[in-house]
Design brief:
The structure is a homotrimer of 268-residue chains.
Chain A: H1 11-15, E1 21-26, H2 27-38, E2 43-49, E3 52-58, E4 64-71, E5 75-80, E6 83-88, H3 89-96, E7 104-110, E8 115-120, E9 123-128, E10 150-155, H4 156-169, E11 172-178, E12 183-189, E13 194-200, E14 206-208, E15 212-217, H5 218-227, E16 233-238, E17 244-250, E18 255-261
Antiparallel strand pairs in A: 1-5, 1-7, 2-3, 2-6, 3-4, 4-18, 7-8, 8-9, 10-14, 10-16, 11-12, 11-15, 12-13, 16-17, 17-18
Helix pairs in contact in A: 2-3, 4-5
Amino acid sequence: MSESAPDTNSSDAADAPTRPFRAIVDADAIQMAVELVDALFDECHLRLEAEGLRMAGVDPATVASVELTLGRAAFESYETTGVHTGVDLSRLGDVVQMADSGQLVEFDLASETRTLEIHIDGLEYTLALLDPETIRRPPDSPSGGFDFAGEVVADADDFDRAVRAADMVSNHLALGIDDDEDAFYVEATGDTDDVSLALPAEDLADLTTGEAHSLFSLDYLTAIDRAMPTDAEIRLRLGIEQPATIAYEFADGAGSVEYVVAPRISSH
Amino acid sequence: MSESAPDTNSSDAADAPTRPFRAIVDADAIQMAVELVDALFDECHLRLEAEGLRMAGVDPATVASVELTLGRAAFESYETTGVHTGVDLSRLGDVVQMADSGQLVEFDLASETRTLEIHIDGLEYTLALLDPETIRRPPDSPSGGFDFAGEVVADADDFDRAVRAADMVSNHLALGIDDDEDAFYVEATGDTDDVSLALPAEDLADLTTGEAHSLFSLDYLTAIDRAMPTDAEIRLRLGIEQPATIAYEFADGAGSVEYVVAPRISSH
Amino acid sequence: MSESAPDTNSSDAADAPTRPFRAIVDADAIQMAVELVDALFDECHLRLEAEGLRMAGVDPATVASVELTLGRAAFESYETTGVHTGVDLSRLGDVVQMADSGQLVEFDLASETRTLEIHIDGLEYTLALLDPETIRRPPDSPSGGFDFAGEVVADADDFDRAVRAADMVSNHLALGIDDDEDAFYVEATGDTDDVSLALPAEDLADLTTGEAHSLFSLDYLTAIDRAMPTDAEIRLRLGIEQPATIAYEFADGAGSVEYVVAPRISSH
């Protein structure tokens, strides 16, 4: 929760002199933002703050969480008094998908009724918002942060190929860094077939070595992979039997998303 | 039924000196014609008259009816002695869909066997026709006609956006004209979300005002909307708790279709 | 089985001085080869011989068999000591489909472990091979060969149109040659509708007449038709109540496939 922002569900919001949130945004940017969060769950926290729009949530099994920011720079116009609410992602996604590429989507939040008005070229959609108290909240990171051993910057395209191939043979895959070989690797071992992808430092945009190896469920990685734009440059932070973070920018750098995925117990 | 045309199912037809119907038509025109009627039901009346081909039918619940004409101008060649028969639209649709865009489709009706021969570049499909007596007939309009209050000429694209958005929130929608605001509107009220589209006169090709408001089932409007070409200019006639008519031209003006949809009981 | 080639499942292979099979091939050629065999069954014999790669199999009901060759000319590089093994076509197909058009796919067969390594731009997929003794073998042709009466060379496009139309009305179709009319024909008779396509010699690339007529199950012809490239020139050999062969080249002539389909008992 953003401490500095008044809650729309509190009585303060109703006294605010202006509309709590009005903004106009390019359809492609908001469609992408919703899709990246919708990949993992149906409902999320929506925070409308001075710096931009933020969405956050965690899946029902608390294996994967997302934090997404779409900064003011992505908006044609943006004004807010600060809002914390909740949103149904599949309904919001359906609505913003009605806009054609390049069209503008206009938001207007009427706090009194807890509804978000969405305007697309004459069409007005009134979306009921959700009480944020009813939506799972991403767990706090450990006080000292995760113990990441290394960091990889790779093409989404390479990650995509490895995840799709792994999904043919198994339901989990290992992400790791081979410190000796100076390489990032993806491995999946199935009942009959195996998949591996090793990318040495020279095939990566960046590599901070440090031995790393953790096993993840393909359910989550496949969902994250499908939503990922193919031209993204993704930043992975990895450790030994640690969560992985997968982060990248979108909307010409105005948006950023970070997924945190918990590891499976591995016998490696 | 066209009174002046002999029925192929009568003995007269068998004595006719020429084939009752021979015609050659561009694949795109006949594909569109069949699709526009097939949107609502599986079987329809088929009348082959001097002015052109006509299809008509009504859905099993008698909520929506269609009258479609594909005039002689749409045909490369067209000769008929006048025929009234019935046709299975999904089978006819499958056959004409075999032709590529720009190909010619040739029809030859052999009345003796109640079958329609369809030729597409060497392929011959023999389609069994249906006894028109077994096919529902669109109800007659009331003697004085419907009591339409106003008429709207709009882009199919706007109608499409409103119907698709309404379908996200409800299973019925209201079509109306706001006499004071000089605007055509579409409204749908769902359990949590609402949709509305208001098009003032300046955003319409034409508007004849007169207060109008009726509620319709989205099942029918969605089916009509899906078949509609996106570049059509549609003419809607509306009243107060009255049926709506939705009409437009296709095949470069050689074809025309009119749907009549009965209203739902509204508590508005 | 290729008599001159050592079997990878025998102890000889393990003693071979070089890898039993290493090859690099254009993605499009191998994707097409796998798809043409996968159309009819899931597992097939895979022979890696001096002349090229061969795949062969027969469907569970022993109605349809395939023999496919992808010659050395289709490969960027190709070396083999001769191998006879078995392969799961849907898994092999999924892997080679990961390559983009124009990419190279590299194969490396490690006989010791009966696995085929497949490399696509950094990705390594280890595919478990199958014991060829467990895979159905296409039946031998009768000693004198089939009694074909005539041969037709036609466009895949015409065959495709006839098969798709026949599939709308029936579950079997007749392929034949009308000796008097000098024409190849396809016919299907349904409960209500009929389909026929007659192609006279002048509409065919070649026709060797001889009265022919046999009835075939559409299940098999539809599967063969769907996998067929639309620009292929297909060679059909037909007889009276005899199997039909359907053969064509692919991969710019470096590949060839021949299907043999047994006839149904016909009352014609």
